[in-house]
Specification:
alpha/beta, 20% helix, 7 strands, globular, single chain
Length: 115
Amino acid sequence: MSNIVYGLSVDTADAEKLARFWAEVLGRDVASGASPEFATLDPDGAAPRLSFHRVPEPKSVKNRLHLDLISPAFEAESQRLLALGACRIRDVTQGSARWTTFADPEGNEFDLIAG
């Protein structure tokens, strides 16, 4: 027997607010019924389910799992992410690979890869 990844869940202080940020980043819609306690992005059949759950404790350490996004319009997309409320943490170049680590409005890290 094997398992199937159903989706990813993100702990948050305000599920609906963070879901709206990620919906804009990923070009997806927030499913109906979103609230500060729980929100999810509408599954589109191609991308994994992404859900947000309010938890009482604040983020306290670097997240051990993060999303990797890739864009052929790296500079323009970097500027769009900043305009949406992301914060640039660091720029990295390793050989021919280049990416920027950002944090979402609640401090969860993610990478944008030049591709």
